[in-house]
Every structure is written in structure tokens, then in C-alpha cells.
Amino acid sequence: MSTGAGGKEPSIRRHARRENRQRGRLQTVNTEAIKEQQIRSREEREQKRARMDGRHEFLLSTIAERLGLTMDEAEDFMLDGDQLNAFDSFFAQGGRSALIFFYKETKPEEGTGGTKEKCLWVTDGTKDPYSGCCMFFVRPNSSKPITMLNIHQEVYFGMLDSNGEGLLGAIKGLLDLVFIPALERNEKWGDLSGIEAQQVKQQFLGKLSSFVGVLANAQASVADAVKLSRIENEKLLKLMTLSSSEILSSMNNQDIVVAAENIAMKWCHEIEQILTESEQMRKEADDVGPKAELDHWKKRLARFDSLTACVKSSECKTIVNILIGAKSKVLKCDSKNA
Fold first, then answer.
1. Is 4 a member of any domain?
2. Of 117, 181, 217, 294, which sees the most CB atoms within 10 A?
3. What does the DSSP 8-state code read for residue 248?
């Protein structure tokens, strides 16, 4: 018996040594693969860096100065992916007429001791949501290629900084603080001259100022938009991604029904409060004109439109369907209150 046991032990040790050798070889292969990938990545970035010339430096130095970045930081951001292709198109004859950059800073979580993350990237403005800061270069005449000799005359720079006010606030600020003051000081208005030029100028500036007012009202309407409480129950959140048949099968789950009733009653209370506030008398000064009255009703309409959108949302419809399928008493109570 002792001989048999002794015969098995060396076999086990040999098997363990064989596994250790195989594991070591795999780790070596993985380490070498990672090193090769890192080398290829560095080579690709250096090849991209070699494509950059004085035109890239001119644009990126402008961005780096505005954002407080170093030139190396701005260049490193552009080496990710195929962003340099956008530069090539912008510089080429007949290429794109605008080059748009988004910049965003993400603060670290409290207590982590980390530093804020910076991100700068090229975008076409149609897919990435606007947040933080937007910088853009435009060239009015795309029939000419952009060279180091003409880049100072052919390319114009602009910047939209939301400062927490969103896109509408950024556009309003750009018009109000940059374009309108510049136009007011402009003396040349094409072929027009004399009194006619002044009339056209005043009409145009008046309409532009009115548009700025529209942006301000739109921004206020967005800020005042109705937002019902978000669904936080995990079981209900999972239902939002399921099909109608799967939602119907979950109506027998009492926990889900109770959670749906709770959020429905919370929404009803919030809607009732909104309607009550809308019926309250507002106080206005005696010298308020019709424009203030019109702005008030525009804001009120926008507020009710946002409330209607909330009620028609897929989340709200799902909750109502759950309550209907479960024959919840909450619906009866709400109909009586209505």
C-alpha cells in the first residue's frame, strides 16, 4: 500500500510541474504579445505624428491656448483613431468647410484622490452630444487648399462654451457678446450708404437681437421643463427593456406591481402639484407690455408640452399597462381625483 501511494505522489508532482511550465509559457507568450502590440501602437502614433505639419500646429496651438493645455497634450489627443483624416479633408481643395472639436473634463469621484480626466476629440457635431466646450475652425472658401501661406487669412476660429448653460446659452452668449457688438461697430454695409444703410443696419440688428431673446426664452423653457421622478426600482428598470409579452407575464409579481403603484402615485402627486402651480395668479408690474405676456404664455405652453411628453413616454405607458393588467386600485383612485 505504501509503495502504491508513493508511486502516485511522483506522478502528481510531475503533472503539477508540467502545468506550471505550460502556465509559464502562456504568460511569456501573453507578455510578448502585449509588448509587440505596444510597440506597434507607438510606431503607428509616430507615423501619424510625422504627418502633422505647421498647419496642424497652427490649429492645435490655438486650441491648446484656449483650453490651457500643452501642445503635446493637444497633439496626443489627435493621434487617437483616424482623427487626422478630418484635418486632411479640411486642408484639401474642395474639402470640408469646418473642423469641429469637443472638449470635456471629468472630475474624479470624491475621496478617490484622482485627477480630473481631460478629453479632446474631432467630431462632425451630429453624433456626439454637446457638453463642455466646442471649438471650431471654418473656411468660407473651400475652393482653395489651405497652406501655411494662407491659413492665417482663410481660416477663422470660434468657440462655444456652455458654462453649464447648454447649447442655447452658448449660442446666445456668442451672439450677444461677440457678433452683435462687432456688427454695431461695423461701418461698411456693402453697396448701401447714407440713411438707407443705417435703416438696413438697424433692422438687421433689431432682428438679430430679437433672435437672441428667442434663444433666452427657449433656454428658460428648457430649464423649466417638467421632469417626473425617475424609476429607480431595478425590477421595473429591467421591464423597460422587455417585450410586451414579457411585461404581461410579470404582472403576477406582487413586488413589481407594488413598485409600479408607488411610482405611479408619485407621478400623480407631481403632476397635480404642477397643475396647481399653473392656476396660481402671477404678479406683474403695471408697466409690463404685451411682450412679457407673450413670453409668459410661451413658457407655460413649453412646460405643458414637456409634461405631455413625459406622460406619453414609454416608461409611463409601461407602468400604466402593468397597473391595468394587475387591476390596480391606484388607477381607480387617480380617476376619481381627476
1. no
2. 217
3. H
Q: Could you tell me how many helices (H) and strands (E) the chain has, helices first?
A: 14, 4
Residue 21 lies in a domain: yes
pTM of the entire structure? 0.60
Compute the mean pLDDT over every residue in the chain, rounded to the nearest whole number.
82
- Which one of 255-259, 287-291, 293-297 scores highest in mean pLDDT? 255-259
Q: How many domains is the chain partitioned into structurally? A: 4
47 phi and psi, to 5 degrees?
-65, -40
Residues 213-240 as b/e (b if ≥16 CB within 10 A, e otherwise) read eebebbbebeeeebebeebeeeebeebe
Query: Would you say 256 and 236 are in contact if contact means Cβ atoms under 8 Å apart?
Result: yes
Sign of CA dihedral 62, 65, 68, 74: positive
In a domain, 207, yes or no: yes
**Beta carbons within 8 Å of 334's beta carbon, 6+ residues apart:** 264, 268
* C-beta of residue 267 within 8 angstroms of C-beta of residue 235: no
pLDDT tens per residue, range 35-55: 888 888 888 888 999 999 999
Does 58 share its domain with 134?
A: yes
DSSP annotation string for 274-337: HHHHHHSPPP--TT--HHHHHHHHHHHHHHHHHHHHHHTSHHHHHHHHHHHHTT-HHHHHHHHH
| Grid coordinates of 242 | 422587455
Q: DSSP letters of 73-86? A: HHHHHHTSTTTHHH
* 42/56 same-domain check: no
Within this chain, do residues 125 and 205 fall inside the same structural domain, yes or no?
no
Domain hosting residue 185, numbered range: 164-223
> Which tens digit of pLDDT belongs to each residue from 138-157?
998 989 999 999 999 999 99
DSSP string, 161-200: E-TTSHHHHHHHHHIIIIIHHHHHH----TT--HHHHHHH
| 243 lies in the same domain as 272 | yes
- Has residue 156 been placed in a domain? yes
